[in-house]
Task: inverse folding
């Protein structure tokens, strides 16, 4: 039995296999409609996230399974002071697999150490969010057909943005991927990420100027500056509008640029871009569901 | 200053001067009934000065903890008055309840029962990271 806490737990071969399964689900949805008949997914969401929770639930329903769970800590026994370990042991008696989101970093790992069923990390604070990365990877795979030789721009909150950290971890394993980190100085990519890239000889540059680097990008990954990651409201208000992508800023972009965003967006991508063929963020949502389906099948060892 | 030779026990030598007391406490040596000598600032050819701990009892020591505090320590096992084994210490791969995670967002900050576990992330730079949130120690 295995869980998925960090995207790095999946080898590139396993990622390729998940991508292949997702491709097959997209091509033949009927083939998968009863793969999880009689199975239950527990969605334990200690922090609200409509999108990720609905994606997991839709994924399980489309596999023929059922869903139980809660969508905020107040409606769980955590409000009574129950530990993550005890919650994991308890839920193991009711369900076949857990998807957990928690505001505290490392909580899903603690759950996986105590549960007797697979645990999927559905986001732990600013730390990891591996299934968002699976959605990102399927989007790049469907749009570009490969991961090698891509120049990937990551823009916005690179300090607290867990989706950014997980995506870098996944993409760095492919050949000749170059990263361009675009952020205000206060939200720069953590030094440990840069250190580890340097150590492996992976190319990266850092800038505060999105337009200057736009022409070199194959992928532009936009992120939201998240209120809930700040202790100080003043800092949040000062930084929230740092980067807003508008049609003007895309003037020098490549014709085959792919614009990704983990969503929800606030205002960092102008709605005027939504109809641009380079905008991939709503397709990304759909792909996220297919990758969660592929992951559930893999962790439940359903053939 | 002279301290009696020990017959059966352990001598922790080449402790960086000033760290002896910390190691004494961390190893829980105050709980032992046997004779123990903690010598501070002993002259050393190699180090200038050093601390030494002599334990007059044949016990098992958790050398992993020592490795984190001071990896240059040598552990000498004494049997019948003779030094039968001289061990150097490696940095431990895992530290349990030695360090506390400083990240207020870490699950270990709110759940009191969780052990504080750190793993060795970079041997050269002696960097440990929290098992749960990967924050640097």
Result:
């Amino acid at each position: 039995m295995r869980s998925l806490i960090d995207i790095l737990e999946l080898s590139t071969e396993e990622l390729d296999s998940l991508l292949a399964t997702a491709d097959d689900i997209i091509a033949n949805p009927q083939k998968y409609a009863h793969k999880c008949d009689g199975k239950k997914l527990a969605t334990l969401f200690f922090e609200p996230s409509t999108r990720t929770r609905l994606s997991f639930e839709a994924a399980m329903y489309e596999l023929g399974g059922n869903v139980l769970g809660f969508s905020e800590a107040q409606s769980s026994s955590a409000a009574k002071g129950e530990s993550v370990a005890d919650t994991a042991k308890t839920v193991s008696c009711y369900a076949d697999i857990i998807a957990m989101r928690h505001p505290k970093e490392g909580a899903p790992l603690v759950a996986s150490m105590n549960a007797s069923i697979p645990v999927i990390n559905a986001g732990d604070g600013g730390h990891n969010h591996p299934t968002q990365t699976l959605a990102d990877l399927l989007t790049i795979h469907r749009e570009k057909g490969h991961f090698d030789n891509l120049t990937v721009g990551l823009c916005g909150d690179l300090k607290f943005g867990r989706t950014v950290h997980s995506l870098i971890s996944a993409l760095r394993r492919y050949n000749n991927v170059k990263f361009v980190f675009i952020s205000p100085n206060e939200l720069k990519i953590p030094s440990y990420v840069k250190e580890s890239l340097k150590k492996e000889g992976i190319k990266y540059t850092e800038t505060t100027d999105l337009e200057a680097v736009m022409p070199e990008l194959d992928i532009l990954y936009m992120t939201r500056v998240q209120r809930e990651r700040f202790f100080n409201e003043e800092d949040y208000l000062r930084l929230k509008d740092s980067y807003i992508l508008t049609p003007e800023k895309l003037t020098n972009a490549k014709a085959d640029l792919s614009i990704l965003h983990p969503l929800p967006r606030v205002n960092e991508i102008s709605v005027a871009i939504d109809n641009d063929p380079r905008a991939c963020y709503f397709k990304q949502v759909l792909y996220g569901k297919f990758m969660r389906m592929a992951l559930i099948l893999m962790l439940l060892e359903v053939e | 200053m002279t301290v009696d030779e020990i017959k059966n026990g352990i001598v922790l030598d080449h402790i960086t001067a000033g760290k002896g007391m910390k190691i004494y406490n961390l190893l829980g040596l105050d709980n032992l009934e046997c004779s123990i000598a903690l010598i501070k600032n002993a002259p050393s050819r190699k180090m200038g000065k050093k601390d030494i701990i002599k334990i007059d009892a044949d016990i098992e020591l958790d050398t992993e903890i020592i490795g984190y505090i001071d990896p240059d320590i040598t552990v000498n096992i004494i049997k019948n008055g003779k030094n039968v084994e001289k061990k150097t210490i490696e940095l431990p791969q895992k530290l349990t309840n030695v360090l506390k995670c400083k990240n207020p967002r870490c699950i270990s900050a709110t759940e009191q029962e969780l052990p504080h576990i750190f793993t060795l992330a970079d041997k050269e730079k002696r960097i440990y990271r929290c098992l749960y949130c990967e924050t640097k120690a």
Q: What stands out?
A: Chain A touches chain B through 16 residues (CB under 8 Å).
